[in-house]
């Protein structure tokens, strides 16, 4: 099988290493290699979507699911009450570096 071209596609297919903390049919969540908070996970749809800018109405359920996974991670790590940040960067001026849609889950430090 040819190697998937995109880094996060490869991680989702377990062809590239990552510390995967959660997985289901639709998404994986793994540790960011350059964490910007004590807990920094990336929630990544298994299907390749480039960014928020290329979302279509067909992606509604998947995007909603990503937020529910964030909620689940927040609860499982004990942050439901204290809170956390769920962040999506889009495009060059939005700070997006990896062009496979992902939701940053950041917890353990007060957001600015
Ligand atoms: P963004 O700027 O929103 O595109 O975020 C990309 C994120 O991916 C950054 O926080 C990087 O630290 C993270 N990242 C890049 N390569 C890897 C990797 N191989 N495993 C885990 N996280 C990564
Ligand atoms: Zn991809």
Give the cofactors and ligands: adenosine monophosphate, zinc ion
Main sheet: strand order: 1-2-3-5-4
The tally of strands reads 5
Low-pLDDT segments, ≥5 res:
none
Class inferred from helices and paired strands: alpha+beta
Q: What's the multimeric state?
A: single chain
Largest sheet: 5 strands, antiparallel
Q: In which range does the helix fraction lie?
A: 10-25%
CATH topology: HIT family, subunit A
Name the shape in a single word: globular
CATH class annotation:
Alpha Beta
Write the element-wise H/E pattern from the N-terminal end onward: HEEEHEE
Spell out the CATH superfamily: HIT-like
- How many angstroms does the end-to-end distance come to? 45 Å
Number of structurally distinct domains: 1
The tally of helices reads 2
Percent strand equals 15-25%
The Rg value, from CA coordinates, equals 14 Å
CATH architecture: 2-Layer Sandwich
- The whole-number mean of residue pLDDT values reads 95
